[in-house]
């Protein structure tokens, strides 16, 4: 069945049908019985019909990107899927004869995507338990950098890697046509403390033809060219936002090892927001809310300062950072 004609035939998101389709993957089932309700969100693969991109469910880290069960536009006979009704109280879905198709090779149970290569790539994060979680970024005509039908929420689970749009966790990020100045904010979730690795899983279009993908770590201040190799980092258990972002042109000249450092960074680590200096100590730190009201004033006298996120409600804040008279301001979003 052709998911695109099924989606458009039912009116798309304007008609109350989500652009995201999810497929149950039994990758965690090591027995010969169905697990009943014993499954989690990261056991679902996803496909977005607007950005024409799918992501695989959590898998063993040794599974190559091209051999994962990644859903595409066409669904095999007997394969079930899940989608959502949005924006309307109820809706009757219709199946049309023109959604039937036999013009694809049934080389996986989920199905196979169609169409020429797009400007897109998949990132994976490998956990200390050697599981791989995946996300995708796709650039195309008609895409939008704001949240829309070309985006799919991340699937959830104990470990996650996702991009962020307006504070939302996105597993498939559709974006407007590529420009080298674009930046993609990332977030991650870690089940246990330990070493994690981020790498390119697959790439197509310009990303397979020379366009580099750089990962900026705001905690360490390093920039790594993922097109040349993976990046391993240490993380505490919990959720991290503001630590990582994807850029496509190095902000300063890279060192010979493909990495460089930024002098002052702000990131989230578990329940804390952290301000870290690579060289000069932080002698004063002030936190202001959007109205200019001072919420916190402290004198860390250290190269690292922590702000308990529990004292902040969701919103935008301004940090005033004093380093022996040198004042720097940074924006913080909770």
Q: Main attributes?
A:
40% strand, 334 residues, elongated, mainly beta, 2% helix, 22 strands, 2 domains, 4-stranded antiparallel sheet, single chain, Immunoglobulin-like
Report on this model:
- This protein is mainly β and 334 residues long.
- It folds into 2 domains: 3-262, no CATH class; 263-334, Immunoglobulin-like (Sandwich), CATH 2.60.40.
- It is 2% helix and 40% strand.
- The protein is built from 1 helix and 22 strands.
- Strands 4, 5, 6, 7, 8, 9, 10, 11, 12, 13, 14 and 15 form a 12-stranded mixed β-sheet that branches. A 4-stranded antiparallel β-sheet has the order 19-18-21-22, with no helix packed on it. Strands 1-2-3 form a 3-stranded antiparallel β-sheet, with no helix packed on it.
Low confidence ranges: 29-35, 105-116, 252-260
| Strands, total number | 22
Instruction: Tell me the Rg in angstroms.
Output: 22 Å
Major sheet characteristics:
12 strands, mixed
- Give the SSE order as H and E letters: HEEEEEEEEEEEEEEEEEEEEEE
InterPro entries: Secre_tail
Set down the secondary structure blueprint.
Elements: H1 3-9, E1 20-24, E2 44-48, E3 53-55, E4 59-60, E5 119-126, E6 131-139, E7 152-153, E8 160-165, E9 168-175, E10 183-190, E11 194-204, E12 214-217, E13 222-225, E14 231-235, E15 238-247, E16 264-269, E17 272-277, E18 284-288, E19 294-298, E20 304-308, E21 316-323, E22 326-333
Parallel strand pairs: 6-9
Antiparallel strand pairs: 1-2, 2-3, 4-6, 5-6, 5-11, 7-9, 8-9, 8-10, 10-15, 11-14, 12-13, 12-15, 16-17, 17-20, 18-19, 18-21, 21-22
